[in-house]
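BACKBONE STRUCTURE TOKENS:
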Amino acid sequence: KVRTCATCANIGPGYDIAAIALDIFNECSVFKGKGRDHSINFSGPFASELGKHDSKNDLVIKAMRAAIKKFTSRIKSGGQCKNKDGAETEESSLNPADTGIEGYEDDPGILKVFDIDMTVNIPPGKGLGSSASAVIAGLLIANKAYNIGLNKKELFQTAAEIESSPDNAAAALSGGMAIVYRSGGQYLFEKISLSSSYRILLMIPPDTADTKEARKVIPDRVPIEDVIRNISNFSLLIKYLEEDDPAGAAVFIKDHLYQKYRKDIYPRSLDLVNELIEAYGIPASISGAGPAVMAIMDGEMFEKYKNIKGRVAGKYLSFKDIVAGICDSGSYYL
């Protein structure tokens, strides 16, 4: 079994470099396949939503195959998997060519096909890292089932080749807050652990947003003044978050680089972000490509928020709120 966490990317001025891992998880149970190709069965509160996002259905298997192709020489017998009846199994009679998996010896001790039961707790199309969660799930499954032995750096760099938001992938692997950077042509990341007392308020509207479309509205060139303001804001945002000072963070979570260009995609979400910051001093931003809104509060601020929750909810009636914590462990095997 594999658990992969939701993420909130960008966190205001940290566009395409920062994300926070949440304690909301999709869970995959992996079994020896009964057919001639991999299969995924979806259950859970958001299973029906995946039908509206067909490309996400393929990401788990796409990531599995990417790992197999990239690390063919490291595949070994001894990977772990069970039949659905619970019995351990380590062999398959199928040929690798039957599933499009080629390039390694037809070792009867290596399973070729898997049936996956996936419990979907991360809503897709909301900016909460559902795509990154699926990619990380596929890589972790391949790593375990094929006994490849990938470390987090290798898992992340493979994910970055598949997932359009490496910041989400980094946080889903590392937990806490992940900061992504490039060095020598490679994506790398560093983890920042944040206080376990933080509460992440998610306010999720009924509509969805497409990441590719949301990226298209951002111009290729932006004013240098906006870039400078974002660099300054992000640096000080990290300072105040590490100091457990969400009131200070509220001053510097403001973005000047991309959110304003997306105002026509989700105007009500941006109204909510601005109201939380300006009227209540709560650090808030669009989560990832949106349209979900995320707000970061410590225990004291969250208690104060309860006093205004009815007022905010009454103004944004279509938004569903979820309170999550920060997942410091990242995604993991059960």
